[in-house]
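thread: overnight batch results

M.L. [08:02]
morning all. the overnight job finished for the chain we discussed friday. pasting input first so we're all looking at the same thing
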Amino acid sequence: MSVAEDFTTLYGYEPAGVWAAPGRVNLIGEYTDFNEGFVMPLALPHTAVAAVARRDDGILRLHSADVEGPVVELAVAALEPLSDSGGWAAYPAGVVWALRAAGHPVGGADLHLASTVPTGAGLSSSAALEVVTALALNDLYELGLDRRELALVAQRAENAFVGVPCGVMDQTASAVCEPGHVLHLDCRDLSVRQVPFDLAAHGLRLLVVDTRVKHELGDGAYAERRAGCEAGARALGVTHLRDVPYAELPAALDRLTEDRVRRYVRHVVSDDHRVERVAALLDAGDVRGIGPLLTEGHASLRDDLRISCPELDLVVSVAGEAGALGARMTGGGFGGSAIVLAEAGETEALAKALRTAFARAGFPEPRVFEAEPSPGARRLA
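M.L. [08:03]
and the structure it wrote out:
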């Protein structure tokens, strides 16, 4: 059955509409968003879909087709940050809380959700849940928020309600990406530019390799790195690491005494520079030229930020040996996924090489699929 039909079976009446929001994969620019730097994500064809109806009695009912369990029923007036709102249900519930905290008159809703975005794979499954909820409630309650404002609401839900101190990249990508493009996002002023990324026209493919190593960004490792970046900014006398020019990075590093902070600063400043280099290459139509920058970015994430893992490193090394143009881990790290830029005719052999290497290493078989730049959040029906 469809999500709308499931809603009707579940709640006994038809939904007011159906909305979708995609997961994302980040081409380049990792841990730069909360440093007010630059990122370049693209939307995936994998989406969270929500059938939703408005309620005006202060009750929020949530159900997921992907998680066993009953309908989660909550009183919107009683929603509190960092409380137990039913695990996955904290993401849509957090959006309701964030909208109400911002003064928007959201009285309640019935939601039924289903998602094809892999969880724990670094592909922003949580942002997709948040954005699809925000978009649906924005329409149903006629709040008049634009897509970037919805992304900020979704980010606040994850930061303040769920307790993950993420930047705004994931939610913005889910909300505003366009098909056939990668999104250049300035995380300081939230200005966006859609950069053409027509892989097929260049005879290329971008593969996502889900290592099936689950990560949990709420376990403190992400927060520790954010705190280290903030410590580096304070030591260098800037508000955010975005303000450290790449040309002045060696001198800036000489002023830092703690090795951990030096490594974090080196990664963020250099990755911001990589984003700008990738954007320039894509603007010039040199898609193949970005390959070495992807691999360079992985080395920085592995050695300076230290958020890789053996499975992710194996993807990058095998891809390089198999002739890929470039590869790197993507997302928050400690597991999750890697991306591989390859010639269109080499993807099958590359996927086979990856599966063989994982089997030899005793790792679970990776999930390999193409990342086609897809549309952002939208109403389906």
